[in-house]
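thought: user wants a sequence for this fold. calling inverse folding tool.
action: design(structure=
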């Protein structure tokens, strides 16, 4: 297996604590590879053989190459992933002081496992909007990088049933502690603290006042390849930065004879309904600009295929009864085809058969996942994208443990399996 692929993936995750950072870190290798950045407000002049990308909201990205034939003749090979992960978002007016401790109010973003957020070294990152000395609006990314906060657990002596049943109230129990202060009545303003941090990180930036921000907490523990034989990748945000990065590498490393596209959307974890989410117009808008008219667009879509790449639930050895016995994917045994009769996944027999064929051609093992019939099924950008633009779609991804935890676990071999399968898909 390619150890460089895993090390570069983990480095990407470490540098991408928020969707804004992830999108920025997807831009850099595209620019290095000669892709031209397009802007939605400008007229596009694309050519056969060209390589391009465009971002929206600084948190979603579409990258594509134009092959030898027009999209209306051969369609696109499209892979989709998402840049966001469950986390704790900092509220607009976050500061409270309790018992002399300076704390921040937070709200839960997505379906997060909350228990693992306790007793972690936490930092803060995101996007800051500010005015400069000329009263002009600006935006900048910020990452505190060092541990600045913690959410301490209540000692078991004060909660004897903690190991039997523990209820977490998101309003009362999740505000992190940042420091101690004697200023009960007028504690230090968070925007001032934020402005000072931005000035330290960007000393040439003219920032007079922080106006607004989109910030979240993240775990400072770096990603790692672990296990006695290095079998596992342990990291935050494997769901779904793993798919974003592997999709990017497959896009860059496959030849340009066929038109291909990678879309990485924000807001999947909260339903995808936003201007830059999969249930918004971003991807469709890009495709419409690449097709000369509605006729060409319809022909392009009918000749296209989409793989929605999002992590799957690996069968957990301690909780095997949570799986259908015939559909329990194993880590390091290849990507997983995800199906659901209620269309929570977009896979059908046609798209699943194509993926099996591609995996066989690439020499990659492939697995299946169906949720237990007596359990609810999650979803992905797959059904949303399929219903919005009408493209044939498959849901697939690498098996993972502890999905939506602050630290997830995937197989170190599955990254290369997925890479090979997607690379084969982009040229099929």
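)
observation: tool returned 428 residues.
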């Amino acid at each position: 297996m390619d150890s460089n692929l895993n090390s570069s993936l983990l480095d990407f995750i470490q540098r991408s604590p928020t969707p804004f950072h992830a999108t920025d870190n997807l831009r850099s290798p595209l620019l290095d590879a000669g892709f031209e950045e397009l802007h939605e407000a400008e007229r596009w002049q694309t050519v056969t053989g060209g390589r391009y990308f465009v971002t929206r909201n600084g948190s979603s990205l579409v990258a594509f190459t134009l092959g030898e034939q027009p999209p209306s003749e051969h369609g696109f090979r499209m892979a989709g992933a998402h840049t966001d992960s469950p986390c704790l978002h900092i509220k607009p007016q976050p500061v409270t002081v309790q018992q002399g401790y300076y704390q921040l109010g937070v709200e839960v973003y997505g379906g997060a496992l909350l228990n693992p957020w306790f007793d972690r070294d936490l930092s803060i990152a995101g996007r800051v909007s500010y005015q400069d000395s000329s009263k002009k609006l600006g935006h900048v990314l910020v990452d505190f990088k060092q541990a600045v906060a913690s959410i301490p657990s209540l000692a078991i002596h004060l909660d004897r049933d903690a190991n039997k049943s523990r209820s977490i109230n998101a309003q009362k129990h999740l505000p992190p502690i940042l420091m101690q202060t004697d200023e009960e009545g007028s504690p230090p303003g968070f925007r001032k603290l934020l402005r000072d941090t931005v000035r330290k990180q960007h000393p040439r930036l003219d920032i007079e006042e922080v106006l607004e921000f989109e910030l979240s907490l993240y775990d400072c523990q770096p990603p790692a390849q672990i296990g006695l034989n290095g079998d596992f990748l342990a990291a935050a945000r494997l769901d779904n930065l793993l798919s974003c990065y592997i999709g990017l590498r497959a896009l860059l490393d496959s030849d340009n004879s066929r038109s291909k596209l990678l879309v990485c959307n924000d807001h999947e974890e909260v339903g995808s309904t936003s201007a830059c989410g999969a249930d918004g117009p971003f991807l469709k808008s890009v495709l419409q600009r690449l097709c000369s008219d509605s006729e060409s667009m319809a022909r392009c879509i009918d000749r296209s295929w989409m793989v929605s790449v999002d992590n799957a639930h690996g069968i957990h050895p301690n909780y095997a009864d949570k799986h259908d016995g015939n559909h329990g994917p194993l880590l390091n045994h290849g990507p997983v085809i995800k199906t659901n009769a209620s269309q929570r996944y977009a896979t059908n027999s046609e798209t699943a058969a194509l993926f099996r064929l591609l995996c066989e051609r690439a020499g990659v093992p492939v697995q299946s996942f169906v949720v237990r019939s007596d359990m609810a099924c999650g979803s992905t950008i797959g059904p949303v994208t399929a219903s919005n633009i009408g493209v044939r779609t498959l849901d697939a991804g690498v098996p993972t443990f502890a999905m939506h935890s602050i630290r997830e676990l995937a197989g170190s071999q599955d990254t290369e399996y997925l890479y090979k399968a997607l690379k084969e898909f982009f040229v099929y």
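thought: summarizing for user.
answer: Here is the designed sequence. The chain has two domains: 3-85+236-427, 87-219.
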